[in-house]
Amino acid sequence: MGQLRGRYLNWAVTAASCQAFLLLGYDQGVMSGLIGANNEFGKQFGHPDSNIQGILTSIYDIGCAVGCLLAFVVGHKLGRRKMIMAGGAIMVIGTIILGSSYTRAQFLVGRVVTGFGNGINSSTVPTYQSEMARPERRGRLLSAQGTVTIVGLCIAYWIDYGLSFIESPVQWRFPISFQAFFAVCLVVQMISLPDTPRWLCEQDRSDEAASVLARLQIQQPADESTPEVVHLRRQIETALEIESAGGPFQYRELLTGGKTQNFRRMILAGLVNVQQQFTGSNMINYYAPTVYENAVGLSRNLSLILSGCTSLSYLVGSIIPLWSMDVFGRRSSLMISAAGLSTCFILVAVLLSIGTQTCAYAATAFIFLFQIFLGFGYLPVPWFYPSEITTTRIRARGQAFAGFVNWICVFIVVQVTPTAIDNISWKTFIIFACFCFAWIPMVFFFFPETKGLELEDVDHLFERGGITGGVFETRGKTVFPGYHRTINTERIEKPIEERYEQVDA
């Protein structure tokens, strides 16, 4: 069978990337309909209290964090493709352990192993997609990962609800085991796909990189001598020469400033993921039925139905960035999202404090609206922004670090949510509303815009130095002195000779 080329290869790369995030979303949602109820799951594992519920759910995030650490150490060496396949295979193993569990200990081990595989994927897939995507479409394609994450979440919620009426272990064993189907599909999809041109170039496999660049060109036929391919290859090679001028990679480079501003890039990569988790998003995603039942005061059956509907509103919100991300950019999306999230949670807290049934229903409506604002900005951007602002030399490590921060923060939120809901009920929403409000000035002052830029051109934002360099000069506009736009690619290009002069210097 011939190799995939052109649009077909681009679609296949996007499909595999989305498959990984479909699996991530399913994993995030599957526990919400099982935990905290007098059901078959509760009977099997001794009716866990709120503290044990938190552990059974959040231990998965510890596994994800460890998976990110592994990707941080060996991901750059093994490459994007092999790491994704390994992550999918590990998740299959973890699912087998989970689906056959009869004790809490075995279930905890299964959650850790499954999380380990997901951590590898969540810290590798955004890098893979961003390095394979054209800049003018990168925001849309990477936002699609967020959309399918919520598709996975919806599938999990409604499978949980549908099986909640069955009085047998199938009620929980099937939803838990079904994630293996998505993991197997991911591994199979990756078999025929190439690694990224940027990783191949860094491994001194430039001819292979040129071949992949040619295959990725939308206008076919194209080969290694096509002007666009030659230009992209030289651009990548030049950027790598500049980045590697100091010799082999050393971990202390991640803490350096100077022209590359690696430390600032790492801080931003971690910070945007802290922000995502402390919006309170996973208080809803992991524990929606518990929140509706204990904080809002609704029945268990109605809580399960509303949880499924909440995931559908989240899905609606996640579709918006497919159009808006490459129009408004990353900065505006984050700030609009944060403002909407803060407002929604403030209104939820006010309504629940009144304590009437009518106000409880109104609060539910604002939780739905919260999910739409979340899907608009803070769902997709933190997953791919680190891969855009880091250089090829540190991209795998930067994305892995961002993933590690993300999953540690998920662990904290998921662990404390049941206890917080039990003890302070609706006041929990006030805490997250304050966090969301704080994210607005942080994004405005410190986050540069990456919309429409080649990954190599993002470096010029950071060359300006300081902690705000490249933020206020562009104000989200992809315009730099001494550059010109090519009409066909809408890309910013610096004369390649100038970059070679910089290397020689």
Question: Can you give a write-up of this model?
Answer:
The protein is mainly α. The protein has helices at residues 6-30, 40-44, 50-78, 80-99, 104-132, 135-163, 170-191, 197-202, 206-216, 227-243, 262-277, 281-296, 300-319, 321-354, 357-378, 381-389, 395-424, 427-446, 459-462, 496-504; strands at 484-485, 492-493. The chain is 74% helix and 1% strand. The longest helix is centred in the C-terminal third of the chain and has 34 residues, at 321-354. The relative contact order is 0.14. Mean pLDDT is 85; it is low at 476-505.
Beta strand count: 2
What is the distance, rounded to the nearest whole angstrom, between the alpha carbons of the first and last residues?
A: 47 Å
- According to CATH, what is the class? Mainly Alpha
| Topology-level CATH name | Growth Hormone, Chain: A
Trace the largest sheet across and list its strands: 1-2
Secondary-structure element order, N to C: HHHHHHHHHHHHHHHHHHHEEH
- Which blocks of ≥5 consecutive residues have pLDDT under 50? 476-505
How confident overall, as mean pLDDT? 85
Per DSSP, the total helix count is: 20
Gyration radius, rounded: 23 Å
Structural class computed from helices and strand pairing: mainly alpha
Q: Largest sheet at a glance?
A: 2 strands, antiparallel
Binned, the helix content reads over 70%
Which second-level CATH architecture applies? Up-down Bundle
Beta-strand share of residues: under 5%
Number of folding domains? 1
CATH superfamily: MFS general substrate transporter like domains
The geometry reads as: globular
